[in-house]
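Running co-folding for zinc ion.
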Amino acid sequence: MATYTYRCGLDGPMDVVRPIGTAPATVPCPACGAQASRVITAPMLGFADPSRLAVIDRAEASRTDPPVVSSVPTRSGRAARRPRPDPRTSLLPRP
Ligand SMILES: [Zn+2]
């Protein structure tokens, strides 16, 4: 089974669970009955890197719940939110 995302013009996004490969282009909205069109999203695989999933979750949350700030973030605040670099990159040759 896979989770597919659809968007209703009135009620917004919704998830529909169906067998893989059987997702139609539109489904009826459970709230209003209008046709909701399919939205192509990044696959949420269970074996993906947790830090990468956190970045995807933050990016998706920024669409609907952008963080509200009252001042410019400090440099340390920016560094704290930056994802850690892949340790394998330290093995690459430097210019
Ligand atoms: Zn609807």
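Result summary
Residues 8, 10-11, 29, 31-32, 34 surround zinc ion (CB under 6 Å).
The chain has a mean pLDDT of 85.
Job closed.
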